[in-house]
Amino acid sequence: MSEDERYRTSTQYRLWSYTPQSLFALRSSTNQIAADRVREAVRRAREARSNASSADASDFESVPVSEGEVDCLTVEEELKLVAFYCRQTIQLGDHLKVPTDVKATAVQYIKRFYITNSLMTYHPTDILKTALFFATKTENHYFRLTKFADAIGGTKAEDVLASEFLLTQGLRFTFDVRHPFRALEGAVMELQALSHGIIPVLPSANAASGDRPANMERRVRDAHGKAREYLKTSALLTDAYFHYTPSQIMMASLMIADSRLVEWYIKSKMTTSAGEMQSKVLSTIKSCAEMLRTVEPNSEPSPTERKELKGLAKKLTKCRNPEKMDLVALQRAKREGDEADEDKIIKKRKLEKEKSSADDLFGPEIKRP
């Protein structure tokens, strides 16, 4: 089985790969459904508040309900906020000193979750903590829950766990994320071997030895560092993971770092008869590189963007679903409801057992003293 065939069996390819058009359509549908549900939930909350007696009115005061027409977020506004909170997740990961793979996986969990869920339903400040903690599990980086919550500050363990099941549902219980980091290390090792002449270029390849880039060893080293920076930030904050394979993303980051080096490298891997395939591969990599260039590594939002994000954050507080605000309380109520249901089941089984014993031909079971 080739690497391509193996990748096509992964959940990342089967469930989380989209064309730009299909991804936008899915996000638009999610946004519209969430907006309708928010307006309906606000209407119910207003009716409940107006119908409540003075004694019960205090119960509804804790639930903020916007007045007037609810101005919901658009798809584009949600995407801007998701990108901002993905940056916050990376910064939180830096604060907690977790590996790059953990931060990258957490960001992808958030981006995947908000394809079929809206920020108006579940606030990202609740989800990002859970996503980062969950990523420590899936990436085998042990982090005790209480220590994790204490390190964040102002967070309890139940705050982290409250949205864990919601997150796993949103991820469709698929937790594998294929990153391009390991592919980059492999490509760099091969380029270094080519630069030292340890391995030869294919005799039938397009790349002739005379076309070898000058100062190749230094160029490989410089390209490695720059490409890794793009993978650690730009690849995570764009939709590259939804549209391209890890190897394509890796090649795109190298293309940005040193386009001539990458073009020579690709030519060295293909025969002269594969001209059409080579053009197709280069076109795909360049397209991915253009996407990565939209977010520069380690860049921060400009003052204008910060002002816009601040306005969107305020708008979000006014268009949240009032029935989904307190995830901890919802989780507690669900747990208590499950326990009550379990008690009912136990009592029912006990009554059925007593009834069956009473109807037994030989009478009920004799209890030993």
What can you tell me about this protein's structure?
It comes from Rhynchosporium secalis (Barley scald fungus). Keywords: Cyclin. Pfam families: Cyclin_C_2, Cyclin_N. GO terms for molecular function: cyclin-dependent protein serine/threonine kinase regulator activity. The protein folds into two domains: 16-43 and 71-177 and 302-340, Cyclin-like (Cyclin A, domain 1, Orthogonal Bundle); 180-294, Cyclin A, domain 1. The chain has 369 residues and is an all-alpha fold. It contains 19 helices and no strands.
- Summed over residues and divided by their number, the pLDDT gives a mean of 87
* Stretches with pLDDT under 50, minimum 5 residues: none
The tally of structural domains comes to: 2
Strand residue percentage: under 5%
Sketch the major β-sheet: none
| Structure class | mainly alpha
- The third-level CATH topology of the largest domain is Cyclin A, domain 1
Oligomer type: single chain
Organism: Rhynchosporium secalis (Barley scald fungus)
Domain Cyclin-like: 87-169
Pfam family, one: Cyclin_N
InterPro entries: Cyclin-like_dom, Cyclin-like_sf, Cyclin/Ssn8, Cyclin_C_2, Cyclin_N
